[in-house]
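A reminder from the course coordinator: this example appears on the midterm review sheet, so study it carefully.

Given structure:
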C-alpha cells in the first residue's frame, strides 16, 4: 500500500505542526490530518469515535503532555479534518489504517493514549504486533450507541442505510445534529459540568458535524458498524492477551452500562485503573485531572 507524508498549510489545531498522511484504501486515496506537538519520545493520542470526533478534543491534554513527549494526535478517516468519502465504514478500515499509520510515522513501539471506541483498535493492534510500549485507555467503550440501547443488528443496519441515503439521510442527520440535540447529548453522558457546555462550545461542535460527508462515518459509529468486537468476553480477552502495561481511566459519572464494562476491564489482573470526575468526555472536560492520574504510569521507567 503506497503512502506519503506531506506538509499542509492548515492552521486549525491546538498549536502543533499540522500535517497530512495520504493513505490508500481499496484504490481510493484518503487524506488523514494529524498534528505534532512537543519533543521527546513519541506518544500517540487517539480521539474517541463520535459524531463530533476530532483531534481537537485531545488538544488540551496534548499541550499538557507536550513537555514530556512528542505528542501526535490525529483525525480518524471519516472524521475531523480528514477525508470523509461515502465508504462503507467498518472495523477493517480502521484496523488497517491504524496499523499503517503507526508503521509509517513511528520507528519503534510507542506510548498510546486512546479515548472511547478507539480502545478496541489499539488492543487488537497491540495483540497482533509490538506496536505499543504502554497503553492508556480513557473511558474505553467497545459497543456503539444503538447496540448499547438494545437495538438489533437488523434495526441498526436499517438506520445506517437510511442515514446514508441522499435526501432522507441528509434530513435525518440534520435533525440529529442540531445544536439543541448536541447540547442535550453532552449534558446526558459526555460532560458532567453543565457550565462548560456553553453556546460557543456547542456551536464549534455543530460545525464539525456539518462538514461534507460527515454523516457516513458518524452513522457507522452510532449504529455499531465500527464495533471491532461484539462481546464483552472478546474485549476482555484482548486485554488478557496483552504483553505491555495497561492503565484504564474511568469517569465516575459514566453511563451505567458503560461503567459496568469499564469496571469489568479494571478488575482484570495487571490492569491499573483510576476513577476520576467526568463521563465519556473526561479527556476533554478534565484534561488536567487526566494528566495527574496517568503521569506516573506514563513516565515511570519500569512500565
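Designed residues:
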Amino acid at each position: 500500500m503506497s503512502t506519503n507524508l506531506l506538509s499542509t498549510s492548515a492552521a486549525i489545531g491546538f498549536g502543533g505542526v499540522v500535517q497530512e498522511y495520504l493513505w490508500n484504501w481499496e484504490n481510493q486515496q484518503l487524506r488523514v490530518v494529524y498534528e505534532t506537538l512537543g519533543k521527546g519520545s513519541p506518544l500517540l493520542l487517539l480521539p474517541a469515535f463520535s459524531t463530533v470526533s476530532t483531534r481537537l478534543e485531545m488538544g488540551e491534554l496534548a499541550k499538557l503532555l507536550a513537555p514530556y513527549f512528542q505528542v501526535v494526535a490525529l483525525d480518524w478517516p471519516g472524521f475531523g479534518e480528514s477525508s470523509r468519502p461515502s465508504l462503507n465504514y467498518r472495523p477493517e478500515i480502521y484496523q488497517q489504517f491504524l496499523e499503517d499509520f503507526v508503521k509509517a510515522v513511528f520507528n519503534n513501539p510507542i506510548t498510546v493514549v486512546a479515548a472511547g471506541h478507539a480502545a478496541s483498535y489499539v488492543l487488537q493492534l497491540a495483540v497482533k504486533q509490538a506496536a505499543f510500549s504502554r497503553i492508556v485507555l480513557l473511558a474505553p467503550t467497545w459497543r456503539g450507541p444503538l447496540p448499547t440501547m438494545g437495538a438489533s443488528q437488523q434495526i441498526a443496519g436499517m438506520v445506517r442505510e437510511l442515514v446514508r441515503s441522499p435526501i432522507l439521510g441528509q434530513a435525518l442527520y440534520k435533525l440529529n445534529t442540531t445544536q439543541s440535540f448536541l447540547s442535550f447529548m453532552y449534558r446526558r453522558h459526555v460532560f458532567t459540568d453543565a457550565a462548560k457546555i456553553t453556546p460557543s462550545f456547542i456551536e464549534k461542535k455543530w460545525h464539525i458535524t456539518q462538514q461534507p460527508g460527515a454523516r457516513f462515518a458518524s452513522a457507522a459509529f452510532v449504529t455499531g458498524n465500527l464495533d471491532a468486537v461484539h462481546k464483552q468476553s472478546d474485549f476482555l480477552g484482548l486485554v488478557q492477551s496483552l504483553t505491555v502495561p495497561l492503565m484504564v481511566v474511568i469517569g465516575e459519572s459514566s453511563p451505567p452500562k458503560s461503567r459496568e464494562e469499564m469496571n469489568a476491564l479494571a478488575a482484570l489482573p495487571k490492569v491499573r485503573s483510576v476513577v476520576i470526575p467526568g463521563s465519556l468526555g473526561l479527556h476533554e472536560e478534565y484534561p488536567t485531572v487526566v494528566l495527574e492520574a496517568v503521569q506516573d504510569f506514563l513516565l515511570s521507567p519500569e512500565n
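The first strand starts at residue 4 and ends at 7. The chain has a mean pLDDT of 92.
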